Input
Amino acid sequence: MAFQHLFSYYGPTNLVLGPGSIHEIPGMISEQNLRKPLIVTDAGLVKAGLVARITDILGDADVAYSMYDGVEANPPIRNVNECVELYTSNSCDHLIAVGGGSSMDVAKATGVLVKNGGEIADYFIGAGTVREKIPYLLCVPTTYGTASEVTPFAVITDDDKFKAAVGGPLIIPDAGVLDPDMAVALPLPIAAATGMD
Output
């Protein structure tokens, strides 16, 4: 087997890494001239106090926000529709996903509908194509391994309990903040499973 001499890498996501890096979020939003995010997360992370670490920072920077904390594991279409409704009714202009792959997938799918309209099933791979770039999306992972903060896919569970994907370069998140302090509180089984992933 010949040694590979050519390597190409395209990574459009701006990644900020390091302990305390969530403190960079207000500046990252300001650089984009954005006003009001919808935070997409789950109730468990809210209860654990992880989301408050970010909302406190936003509050200190006088950044108004809305929050959707209804994300479920293997998120159903319902989560996406609820999130879109909250985004539009609260006049949000960008998204911050806090959590594991499910939160990031719901945020991506929400962005697809906000910019492209229709139903999310219209954009499942094989059904249709995303034509408009999703709104600015900043992801804050709280688990290891999914890498959804840099991938061009969102996996949503349809009404028949079948996992389907939306994909393409126009749904890749714009930024990821990888703060290890946001993952230290993981329950041991989740830390082990996502770390192995």
Remarks:
- The CA atoms of residues 22 and 179 lie 6 Å apart.
- The first strand starts at residue 14 and ends at 17.
- The mean pLDDT is 92.
- The chain is about 30% helix and 20% strand.
